Amino acid sequence: xxxxxxxxxxxxxxxxxxxxxxxxxxxxxxxxxxxxxxxxxxxxxxxxxxxxxxxxxxxxxxxxxxxxxxxxxxxxxxxxxxxxxxxxxxxxxxxxxxxxxxxxxxxxxxxxxxxxxxxxxxxxxxxxxxxxxxxxxxxxxxxxxxxxxxxxxxxxxxxxxxxxxxxxxxxxxxxxxxxxxxxxxxxxxxxxxxxxxxxxxxxxxxxxxxxxxxxxxxxxxxxxxxxxxxxxxxxxxxxxxxxxxxxxxxxxxxxxxxxxxxxxxxxxxxxxxxxxxxxxxxxxxxxxxxxxxxxxxxxxxxxxxxxxxxxxxxxxxxxxxxxxxxxxxxxxxxxxxxxxxxxxxxxxxxxxxxxxxxxxxxxxxxxxxxxxxxxxxxxxxxxxxxxxxxxxxxxxxxxxxxxxxxxxxxxxxxxxxxxxxxxxxxxxxxxxxxxxxxxxxxxxxxxxxxxxxxxxxxxxxxxxxxxxxxxxxxxxxxxxxxxxxxxxxxxxxxxxxxxxxxxxxxxxxxxxxxxxxxxxxxxxxxxxxxxxxxxxxxxxxxxxxxxxxxxxxxxxxxxx
Length: 560
Prior knowledge:
The chain is of the alpha/beta class. The protein has helices at residues 15-25, 53-59, 122-131, 145-155, 173-180, 185-188, 197-200, 204-208, 235-241, 249-259, 273-279, 304-318, 324-327, 334-339, 351-360, 402-415, 422-429, 447-452, 473-487, 512-521, 527-556; strands spanning 82-83, 105-112, 134-141, 161-165, 211-212, 215-216, 218-222, 230-234, 267-269, 290-293, 296-299, 343-348, 369-371, 384-385, 390-396, 436-439, 442-445, 467-468, 490-491. Strands 3-2-4-15-7 form a 5-stranded mixed β-sheet. Strands 9-12-8-13 form a 4-stranded mixed β-sheet. It has a two-stranded parallel sheet with strand order 1-18. A hairpin with a 2-residue loop joins strand 5 and strand 6. The longest helix has 30 residues, at 527-556.
């Protein structure tokens, strides 16, 4: 997790791990603790649904791009803009005049991964003073956040602001969002958002996914377009050994054979299942796991591509190219194996790009992590699908008065200030001389900053996702370049940007396939077992779910 917490790294990253790693990385900035440790639904009916078309457009805030700071690397092919330099303190600009708050006090319920900062820290005091409001955080263990969140929502004793990530929105929680949280449309829809310029600069697609129960309810954390799964490789070792970056599935297998030397404790890769699906052109995760073929919706598990990805990944395991600890499914060690050179290729969320670079900068200055360009399985162009434009939101308690909601939105406007502003520097680095110092012009946190300056405020709302790491400018260029190249092949999946809740009776149909894939690639089950599971999925509700989505598609279009 950015600046203060680590996204979990498992041998076989779960959907939740990959989503959380990518989502929170969108707010990461340089100088913090490395990231290594530690359309809307009809929820109340249980039938699912979505809001789109003219109804949706009426709800969305007018987009007004920020002109406060110009990025060093502009967006190309939909990539996130990049910042390779930090503005000198004297040149930081203010995007908000004065203190936005009016002296109110508010509680925030949110997850953190790692040790929570001290309650009465100098950081909290400084930010709250600048906000003109008292924000009191109630941090929870991110690993068990879903359980605590459900209990709190059921109890009715709800904080003023509650953060909810997409991966926790199962079961009855979607209904609770409509029942427990305020409609922000009267304050933000259309030109009303112009009262809050930094909120108006948040991309429209992120706001679109902030519609729940037919109302604009969430304050979003915008995501990078292709941040979910990146195949990383050790560029430093590749250059030293003369390894060529593969450009097809067969070349990857050949390279894996060349790299793997068990007697030297070197293996080609970690579990590459998530990258395999992309290499073979499979669509993403729920609800984006459909493609349209010959006028019919086809689920990802029904595609030949899916079985081919399983078979290719199975070959990696069977041939002994995957690190044995990854084969055993040991959690939280894949990045350690990668940085120690025991495995040279891994896939994970984009948080690891900066996190590994930061961690290895001093002990291993030659270390260089690089993103491998995706390729089609046959060596042709890849087929990539954009990830969700947002998958973390904060919600305001519906019992708040109009004046208090407006004060929170004014505070959120301060927090959503873009990179290169006085507000952003304070939120992300704390006070100069107290929490950070300038090193070659870039702010770098000291030990107090590492302890105190965590992403507590950032989980309330975030600006447009950027790549801003002035302490590692080459890493910024590398990541932005990767996004620009891959962006040429990226397209919107069906139902892109829609906030969809599947009917409860179908909600867990896809769940068994994650464990099934682990078993198949490790040889514990066969491709025939996968085919049987697909048949069971169809008869067990998959065909009916297909019909449900087809009606949604007919009503709302592709979501593009």
